[in-house]
Inverse folding.
């Protein structure tokens, strides 16, 4: 995979992220119209910067380092990127209008326990973690993969706690 093709891949992931934001904005309006309450918003700007940085870091590291594509690493990582997208959109589809990039709970709606949520409490974050190390490693951007993984671990610790608190308070 050449640097150009890798750039196309990163561009496709960026387009997918923009599609997520369109869905999230639509779902946010739906949720707020039904009394939804947003919480955990203090960490959201950091999340946006971190995820944008992942994409920029992938491109910058690969283009500036001039690393060659290593098929034995690149193709398995590419498969993980694809699988992470499948899992992410399975989550989006399962949650329907309740899916969002923000933490928004609509009072009275039941906790979703189907789809991937019957297997894991936060499957979307599994997709984020896998994509966060796999996308850079498709073309050997190990520094980007490492930095994103460490920063994302801290972010997810805050995010999962905020999400669990929001869900708990909605059931009380």
């Amino acid at each position: 995979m050449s640097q150009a093709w890798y750039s196309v891949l990163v561009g496709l992931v960026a387009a997918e992220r923009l599609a997520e934001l369109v869905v999230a904005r639509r779902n946010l309006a739906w949720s707020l119209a039904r009394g939804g309450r947003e919480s955990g918003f203090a960490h959201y700007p950091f999340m946006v910067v971190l995820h944008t940085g992942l994409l920029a870091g992938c491109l910058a590291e690969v283009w500036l380092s001039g690393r060659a594509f290593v098929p034995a690493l690149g193709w398995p990582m590419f498969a993980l990127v694809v699988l992470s997208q499948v899992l992410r959109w399975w989550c989006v589809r399962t949650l329907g209008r309740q899916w969002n990039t923000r933490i928004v709970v609509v009072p009275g709606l039941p906790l979703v326990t189907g789809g991937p949520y019957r297997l894991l409490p936060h499957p979307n974050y599994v997709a984020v973690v896998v994509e966060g190390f796999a996308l850079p490693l498709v073309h050997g951007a190990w520094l980007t993969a490492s930095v994103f993984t460490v920063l994302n671990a801290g972010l997810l610790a805050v995010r999962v706690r905020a999400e669990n608190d929001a869900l708990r308070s909605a059931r009380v």
Remarks:
- Helices lie at 3-33, 44-65, 71-95, 123-137, 142-171.
- Residues 3-33 form the longest helix (31 residues).
